[in-house]
Amino acid sequence: MTMLGRLIDGVSVRVLILLGVLAVALLIAPLIAGDYLLTVLILILYFAYIGQAWNIMMGFAGQLSLGHALYVGLGAYTAAALYVHFGIGPWLGLLVAVPVAALAGAFIGFLAFRFKVGGVYFAILTIAVCEFARVGFDHLAWTRGSSGLFLPVSQYSGNDLWHLRGRPVMFYYILLAATALAFVGCRALLQSRIGYFWRAIREDEEAARSTGIDTFHYKMIAVVISASMTSFAGVIYAFYYNNLFPEQVFHISRSIEIILGPIVGGVGTLFGPILGAFVLTGLAEILNNVLAALGIDLPGAKQVFYGICLLFVIMALPDGVWPWLARRMGLSERSK
Hints:
74% of the residues lie in helices and 1% in strands. The protein is an all-alpha fold. The longest helix has 27 residues, at 215-241.
């Protein structure tokens, strides 16, 4: 069976139609969307991609990370600093940023898994390392510390893909391609031997170990893959916003934003992180527009809204929105 055949094996016709419609809609969206809507769509795709990266670690392998902003920051700062100081383009910088993030993930994983630090204690460890990175970069002169690292910005008549200098539509299609590749890659991983081992570890690590699965090895793989994928999002973040501040990039609120999409959409599912990103980001922007139209200045409104959504999902849809929606639409969901 070909690779394409393995990827679509067991996928219902309705799911394929849904994927086709979604792909077409997203491909033509920039042609009809205004500047504001395009910005919102870029943000949605960013969280959809990064949510899939986090989902590998938690949804597939059962390892809760609350410090995933660490890998975003490492990817962003590495590529941006190489560009600012040496003129190295972001795609070449990615060859450095990904290993840096992967090594950070491997370091955290080794400390935790070798010494059997799991559950909530592993989550606390990820927060601690991310906070350590925030303090460290805040005092690192090479990346301009708390003053911020700024990338040169110019007005472009076209798009320079090699240097990631150009209009928002270019970043939209890059993130769309990355999200699609992440989706396909996650499905391939779930159908592989590694995917079955991950799910066995997620459901009962002791039982998985008793059957001969090297749980340390496969958990390390999950952490490294997740960290590497997340660092790519950091590179895009740096070259899209063109400025980096440690307090902003590494803050725990960024890690929380990363995990909310998969939790609301459905942890451990393929569509969950994507649907969660659309739901949360879309509704949050609608809320902001409504408040602005009413002339209401309510600091922290988005955070309160996220909390309400999370509370609703936990109480009414504990598996997430996507599993519930898939059952209502008669779709096949084989991602668990």
